[in-house]
Structures are given as C-alpha cells and as structure tokens.
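Reviewers of the previous submission asked for a worked example of the structure-prediction workflow described in the proposal, so we include one complete record here. The input consisted solely of the amino acid sequence. No template or homolog information was supplied to the procedure at any stage.
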Amino acid sequence: MNSKAVRANQRKLMIMAVLVLLCAIGYMTVGVKFGNPKLFHYAMKIRTPKLIVMLITAFSIGGASIVFQSIINNTIVTPCLLGMNALYTLIHTAVVFVAGSGSILAINKNMSFVVDLVLMGLVATVVYSYLFKKTRHNVLYVLLIGTVLSSFFSSIQSTLTRIMDPNEYENLLASLVASFSNINSEIIILSLIVLAAVIFFLRKELALLDVITLGKDQAINLGVDYDRCIRRLLLGVTLCIAVATAMVGPISFLGLIIANLSRQLLKTYRHSQLILGSALFGMIVLIGGQLIVERVYVYSVPVSVFISVGGGIYFLYLLLANRRV
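From that input alone, the workflow returned the following structure tokens.
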C-alpha cells in the first residue's frame, strides 16, 4: 500500500474521529438545562456512564469483528457465530428460572457481570482451546461448533421461558434486550481492566494479523506459530464479545455493519487502521443512534432494534454484492 493511500486513510480516520466527537458532544449537551446547576449535574451524572459504555462496546465489538473476519477469511461472518449471545441469554434465563428475578444474582449488576464473564470465558476456553486442538486446528470446525452451541443454548433457553412464571418472564425480558438506559459505573472499571488485559496478552498476536491474513502456509513459512496464534486470538475475540454482551446485552448485527463499513471505506490490509475504523464506526452508530432514541423516540424503541433491522438489510446487500462479484 503506497504512502498516498496511507495518508488518505489517515485523513478518513481523522474525519471519523471528529464525527465521534461531535456525536459525543451532541449526546452530552442536547436537552441539558445549563442554567440550572442541579439539573446540569444530574444530566452529566446520567449521561457520562452511558457514553463511556457506548465507547467501550463499540471498541470491543468493532475490534473483535475485524479480527474474527480475518481469522475466518470471510467478511460476512460475525463473532456472534461463536455462541456468546445465546449463552448470555441462557445464563440470565437460568438465573431467573432457578433463583427468581428478585435474587441477588439478578439484581446485583456487578455480580451478574462477573458471572456472565466467568461462564463465557470458561466456555470459550473449553471450546476454542481444547476442542480447537481436537479438531486439528480447523477453523471451519470451530464455526460449526459455535453454530451448534448457539442452537443448543437457544433451545434450552426457549424451554425454560415456556415453563417460567409469566411475571418472571416479563422481568427477564428487560435484561435480554441490549440497552444503554441502565448503566452501573462500577462495571465500567472492571470491563476496562478485562479489555486492557486481553490487549496486553495478545499484543504479539495482534501485531501478526497482517501476516496471518496471507494464509496458513504463508504465515508458517514466515515463522508464525499459526495454530497457537489463531487459538489465542479466538479466545481474545470471545472475551471481548463477552465483555460487550455482559455490559449491554446481545447486539448481533453491529459487528457485521461496522467491520464491513470500515473495510469498504479504508480498502486496506493494515489491521491497525481497520480495527480503529471499525471502532469509530461503532461509536458513531451507537452514540448517534442512542441520541435519536432518547430525543426523537423518547426511549420507546431501543437502539438495538434499529441495528438489527439495519444489519439484516445490510447483510442481504453484502450477500448479493458478493454473489455479483
């Protein structure tokens, strides 16, 4: 990639960063009573954690989606195929079914976040470490296992909801839809620690992504421990998705949208730019979408609904576009 194209992408990323800043300023200022100190302080107290969570979620899903697509070598797949969204739904359904919606596991967001993260991490460790070795490091088998697990978790969750008390089910629905309305600031600190740890332990593997996309044989010839690298990256992707899902709930199509928009806009193989572009697109979508939800629809429709509808349409577009090519 020549220097002219690199500079062009840098300008695009700068423009996107400015758009993120404008969206953030708009979200933090629109509708705020600046003349009343008490109302201003209350608005900042409510909106600041939401903004931080949206930034963290966009970064987690955006980066994980780019890495996952590069590992699988397919741009129309998303990390939700790993089964983490279905596992999140099952965990929360099982907690309400067994302990009730008034239990400490359902009410205490910090404990709920830790339980989600631990269980998702354990499943990811078993599936994408042990089974990855058993399948002789075949990525397609990993995708198949993830798809089967998604169906398995969804079937159990569906069975539990059918025999659950209707009142308990009504309380459960609030936690199964991605929402930025109720955010616990203590979760933010823990999620940042987890993400920082993932990035630190995978820093070498992330630096090798440009080489890995050349293919297994080429990467091995260049001295890359391909199987170990892929296994660690899959674990990292799963943990990033687990953090984002545990914080706000499942957002299935967000990764598909922002990862492909980043690839189409930047047209580069450099993952440092692709990951940053995907994260910035995610921030624009989430912050701008949440601003519209709060100011136009007055919280009547969660932002995840718009993302799911738009993502479904965009997915069909990608399928048709790839078929023409």
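Residues 263 and 274 are 6 Å apart (CA to CA). We consider this example representative of the routine output the project will generate in years two and three.
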